[in-house]
Amino acid sequence: MARSWKAGGVALFLAAWGANLAFDALYWVVPLLAPPHLLHDHMPEAIRLMVSPAVLAPVTSAVLAAIALLVLSLVPPGTARRVWRLTAWLLFFWFLSEGLLAWVWLDAPGTVVAASLAAGVVRSLAMAGLLVWLQGSPAGDR
Q: Model pTM?
């Protein structure tokens, strides 16, 4: 079967990393959209003194990008409602990773953590759509 254009693993990773960084940058515009890993003011003082948000954002975005690529392999091309299934997987890992981080490290009010985690819904949907679009699909599926 002939394939249409398809992005490789490095391009997918870089796109996912860039998209995650873009979502992290929204924090500077709308602080309510800050993901848990950027709730720097609610971290223990020892962590705040060691690591700045300028370091946390790119490193955490790279980890989230790697998770997104791993999850992409769980939902192969041609799967029905692929974007929605991929979104569900990404959201699961968002709540797992960021939720555990918030639970263990943050001393933030519940409403702040809930809003921070809820922002992952849009982030996961956008990431799924981007990765599926970039990965391409078999020519007959378009």
A: 0.86
